[in-house]
Specification:
five-stranded antiparallel beta sheet, 7 strands, alpha+beta
Length: 247
């Protein structure tokens, strides 16, 4: 695999991390609560571990490892108050492959969904990639589809479309031409932010009335917006910018 960590400095904590409790499940990965020791003191961390089913053959295994290395590169170079810090990696053997696990802080508040269940006066949301840190701030924690623009190895003109359909802009669903893959832009990020805001205020996912991905893509390509009748918690008839996200 041509992509590697040669030009990126990360902490290799292999052999120093112990997983103690599985705390989240995703389509491609699990997240575990764990500990590692620094200066003789245990530190509680979250450990992202890819599912073993992704290593059933060499092709998917190499694609998965490449994606993990790329995510490590992106995450380790990003520092911001609203990004979960990247602590390091530890390697595990999965079906004969040395697979990096990604390590970040563990927050007692966990995901924003879990936080809101325990905070009745907080705003609503249902996104598992947004965590609440120990100071009560929202932080992003998944960089699997993130890119560093203009840096070799972190972006490509042939990027495949990936992401969660309910938050993706319509122009990412269908390419302009058959030989051009849709690429995320600032405009598509604004769309995703709008869908996120809709879920925050409504406690319902975008396009909650649509149940299948195929129906969702059809509706979005036809430029349909989420039906406001399904979002009673969003105020209507007032100059609220978020009302523009529904019809």
């Amino acid at each position: 695999m041509p992509f590697n960590l040669a030009d990126i400095t990360v902490n290799d904590l292999t052999g120093r991390v112990s997983k103690t409790e599985q705390i989240a499940n995703g389509q491609c990965a699990e997240v575990w609560k764990g500990t590692y020791t620094i200066g003789g003191q245990p530190v509680v961390v979250a450990v992202k571990v890819m599912r073993s089913t992704l290593f059933l053959n060499s092709q998917t295994a190499e694609q998965t490892i490449r994606r993990l290395l790329r995510e490590t590169g992106v995450w380790s170079t990003c520092v911001h108050p609203h990004l979960a810090p990247f602590i390091g990696i530890c390697y595990e053997v999965t079906r004969g492959y040395q697979v990096p696990c990604l390590i970040s802080p563990f927050y007692e508040n966990r995901t924003i969904m879990q936080y809101l269940k325990n905070k009745s006066n907080a705003m609503r949301m249902d996104l598992t990639n947004i965590l609440i840190d120990d100071a009560g701030n929202a932080v992003l924690a998944d960089f699997g589809h993130s890119r560093i623009l203009g840096i070799s190895g972190f972006t490509t003109s042939t990027m495949t479309t990936a992401g969660t359909f309910r938050y993706m802009a319509p122009e990412l669903m269908v390419p302009e031409t058959l030989d051009k893959t849709p690429t995320p832009t600032i405009a598509s990020d604004v769309w995703a932010a709008g869908m996120t805001g809709l879920e925050i205020l409504s406690s319902e996912v975008p396009y909650v009335e649509i149940k299948t991905d195929s129906q969702l893509v059809t509706a979005m390509v036809a430029h349909k917006l989420p039906n406001k009748a399904h979002y009673p918690l969003v105020r209507h008839g007032q100059p609220d910018p978020l009302e523009l996200a529904i019809e």
